[in-house]
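Running this now, will post back.
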Amino acid sequence: MNPLKLKPIGVVRQGKIVIDPKWAKGLTGLEGFSHIIVLFLMHKAHKPDMLIHPKSRLKLPDIGFLATRTAHRPNPIGLTVLKLMKRKGNVLWVKSLDVWEGTPVLDLKPYTLREDVQGFKVPKWVKKLDSLETDPLRKYATQ
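Update: finished.
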């Protein structure tokens, strides 16, 4: 097998997504969408433990890391859906971007009805985690 080689198309700067100018033309039309899917490299993550307490909350059971949203993964690729507020040239203003400054952006995709999931289910520990969370943007199952 050939080693996988990914090259970032942009970077997070001051809460905005700054795309490399060579890809700016590829953003044409993106501003017509209300939301975008962003794939990024969690460049500060480390090797995961196989079992973890979600968000380090000891009141929750040990869960396999692949059943959580931890940043610590064998391949630290992140995915998020963000509200696109504005585009100017190669810069995207988005809402609720929760990544480190300097995070490499691997790809963008417009969010469409195709990605919308209705009636999803989560285990009881996720609902308990949500009840302990004070930041509504960090809740996984409830609004």
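The CA atoms of residues 13 and 101 lie 6 Å apart. More later if anyone needs it.
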